[in-house]
Amino acid sequence: MSATPVDSARESLAEALDLVRAAAGARAEADDLVALLVVAEEARRALDRIMVVATADLQRRGTFAERGYRSPAGALSDLLGWERFEARRRVVAAENVCPTTGLGGEVLPALMPATATVFAEGAAGLRHVEVIARVLESAPARRLDPETWAGAEVQLAAEAAALTPTQLHRWGMELVELLDQDGAEPDDGPAPINELRLSHFRTRPGGKLTARYDDAALFAAVVAVIDPGTAPRDADDERPVPQRQAEALADACTQVLERGRLSETGGRRPQLVVTVRLEDLERRAAAASLEFGGALTAAALRRLACDAAVIPMVLSADGVPLDVGRISRTVPDGLRRAVTTRDGGCAFPGCDRPPSWCEVHHVTEWQHGGPTDLGNLVMLCAAHHRLVHHSLWQVRMVHGLPEFVPPSWIDRTRTPRRRPVPVPASTHRAPP
What we know:
Residues 334-386 form the HNH nuclease domain. The protein is of the alpha+beta class. The protein has helices spanning 5-23, 30-61, 63-66, 72-80, 84-97, 113-121, 126-136, 139-142, 146-159, 165-179, 216-226, 241-259, 278-282, 298-305, 333-343, 382-390, and strands at 100-101, 107-108, 194-200, 207-213, 272-277, 287-290, 294-295, 310-315, 358-362, 377-381, 394-398, 401-405. The protein has three domains: 12-179, no CATH class; 193-315, no CATH class; 326-427, no CATH class. The strands form five sheets. The protein has a four-stranded mixed beta sheet, sandwiched between helices. α2 packs across α5 (84-97). The longest helix is centred in the first third of the chain and has 32 residues, at 30-61.
């Protein structure tokens, strides 16, 4: 019996995997093992593309339905032993980056053509495709006109190679919310809920707290008390985040009971940073943001401004805060706030550490003549601060924003990496 194309492919793949395993042997050099990781990731992405294309083809043929499955994800889950979310991830990719069949039987182009291109090239992985699809299905994205929606898809695809899926999702949501300038239609939705439930365990010591805060200002006040104490104590601190948060809240309450006040590192009233783009300022428009709580309504803004430090922060069109112009070795509060507004936490690509866990680093060190001004400062968490000081990673400022140059063993081209800034809607256009 002659071998089928799939049999031949399986045999060739087995031979290739034997070569890969041999290359990972005990005598392999460190650089070879690093290169092998890159090869393995390239192979994984290539296999993902093959599976997505095959899934799309089976969907177009109606094979899953013919064999009794109402859902392609169910068929893949049973066939390959996947969890349903893993199967669904492939189905979502197939529906968005592969050609589809119209009602008349005609072949239609991919719904996300730019994403399809970077996925086919291996620049974006399967999770990136899933994230882009999720962002473009969000409520703000669905309110965009087709041309703006297509332009957002191009922007998301362009950033996929430089961002982790989590970072891409966060940036993508910022992008579509920026593009959705009018926002949702006003309605008489449910009243905001702020509640805290405390219950004692009946059969053992201790108890349980469950809370919900729809009010962004109240939530920001709670987080401002807890967050400084949630940072890992050191590199060996393996407590999970929920445990650190729970113990930080208990510590804050203990300080109040013992001293009648919180320590200097926590418990400051939330400082309100009024972030105004220069073009919006000229139009007499303003937007406000809280470091932890999120967006505020105009009424909440007026309420909080009566009892908080209001810090005006004017941004350029590129999102760069105006320089506070103070020069000293120690970063003053006003300048730290400017760095916080620009970087929003650790600026290292892919890191999501919040500002309260971060330190401000001099790009050109002070002892080497580096000034303490906005153009020479970057916010880094403790881990990435050490990395910049003790590895071959380099940080530099370009057009007022930080970017990071990886060592050659991570990226042979040493292509700089940076957190992207959402572009105003007027500059987004669909591809011709």
